[in-house]
């Protein structure tokens, strides 16, 4: 099952091809953007502070369901949406858009959701997409990944320290590198259609990207 | 002394008022953007892979000095620029623009430069700016910060785990909170023109932001 979570970032940041999902969740203003894009809105989640009263009424009327959270809460609207998704559809693939660009505090909160223990086991099922970037997350292990056709660059982003990271079959390689603080190894490139990596602990993000 | 470091992000992301710096460093394509904005270009740094040959020649002809790095190197162009700046002007304030938006791998590499031991002692002198966000960095201690007139939101971003973080005089407060993984406490707000915080270890970023 493929589930789409749509944050409040501008639809200009959205990737192409958003029609083949099984369940659409709008996060606050993302709900309105889904309606405006004539896409389904299965669930609207948020405190809806970012909408006018008439916009909120429109979202509630058009969405198949909604969860309204209090404005003053510990979780962000996006955290609430991911929490709902993992509780109701624990086997789904969670594709998240509208979470990048704009406010950097929001983006970092969204990126770092995967570090929270409650989301840890869902990490392999989460990805963040926008026009220029795809971000997939990995738990310790050995992986072969595939080049996305539209992307040029490959980056290995250590969200945590790691005892050992090895990169193979790419322009720049590493052999059992110890990572002592978060670091983004940017501007790597595929040499063929696949690349491999192995790491022992922590959480790794892999970003495939292209120039604007 | 105020030094401006200009990365290759679109000039559309630049904040206003860029005329009152003492020294202007262009990073790769950022050098060309400085010339196009009719701002000074005291130093151009990079491998200049992002420029055509004629653009590169124009940058070299118009810049007061340049440092051309090999394309295959361990540091990013931005790291080289900050390294040069800290070596030649160790007392300066380093304002960095053109580092946000676009490629997320680049942004994270730029954000996390402050975690590198070679830059640690310069952390209080570094800030990242764009149209919507200001990011300042802090070493352990007790601080009073001031609200920026154009900004609405306040976020405390723990780039590292911390033994203890306390937030005072803001909409949401914390009392000696232990931080076990990086987290962005987004959407806080000033109650007056100042806010205070205290932390014991690690590195904290404070982001003031506004909606687009």
Brief overview, please?
The structure is a homodimer of 212-residue chains. Helices cover 18% and strands 35% of the residues of chain A.
Can you describe this structure?
- Chains A, B: Pfam families: TPK_B1_binding, TPK_catalytic.
- Chains A, B: GO terms for molecular function: ATP binding; kinase activity; thiamine binding; thiamine diphosphokinase activity.
- The structure is a homodimer of 212-residue chains.
- With 212 residues, chain A is α/β, with parallel strands linked by helices.
- Chain A has two domains: 2-131, Thiamin pyrophosphokinase, catalytic domain (Rossmann fold, 3-Layer(aba) Sandwich), CATH 3.40.50.10240; 137-209, Thiamin pyrophosphokinase, catalytic domain (Rossmann fold, 3-Layer(aba) Sandwich).
- Helix content of chain A is 18%, strand content 35%.
- Chain A is built from four helices and 14 strands.
- Chain A has helices spanning 29-36, 53-62, 77-88, 104-111, and strands at 2-6, 23-27, 43-46, 66-68, 93-97, 126-129, 133-138, 141-146, 153-158, 162-168, 174-179, 183-188, 194-199, 204-209.
- In chain A, the strands form two sheets. Chain A has a ten-stranded mixed β-sheet.
- In chain A, helix 4 links the parallel strand 5 (93-97) and strand 6 (126-129).
- The first copy, chain A, is elongated and about 55 Å long.
- The two termini of chain A are 31 Å apart.
- The relative contact order of chain A is 0.15.
- The interface between A and B is medium-sized, with 34 and 34 residues.
């Amino acid at each position: 099952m493929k589930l789409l979570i749509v944050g409040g970032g501008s639809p200009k940041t959205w990737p192409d091809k958003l029609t083949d999902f099984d369940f659409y969740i709008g996060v606050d203003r993302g709900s309105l953007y889904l309606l405006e894009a004539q896409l389904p809105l299965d669930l609207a989640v948020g405190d809806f502070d970012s909408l006018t009263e008439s916009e909120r009424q429109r979202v509630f009327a058009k969405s198949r369901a909604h969860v309204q959270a209090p404005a003053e809460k510990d979780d962000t609207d996006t955290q609430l949406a991911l929490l709902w998704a993992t509780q109701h559809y624990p086997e789904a693939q969670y594709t998240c858009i509208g979470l990048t660009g704009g406010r950097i505090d929001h983006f970092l909160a969204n990126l770092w959701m995967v570090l929270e223990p409650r989301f840890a086991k869902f990490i392999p099922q989460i990805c963040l997409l926008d026009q220029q970037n795809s971000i997939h997350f990995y738990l310790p292990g050995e992986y072969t990944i595939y080049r996305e056709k539209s992307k040029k660059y490959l980056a290995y982003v250590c969200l945590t320290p790691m005892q050992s990271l090895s990169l193979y079959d790419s322009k720049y390689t590493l052999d059992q590198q110890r990572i002592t603080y978060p670091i983004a190894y940017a501007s790597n490139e595929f040499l063929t259609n696949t690349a491999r990596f192995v790491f022992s602990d922590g959480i790794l993000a892999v970003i495939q990207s292209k120039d604007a």
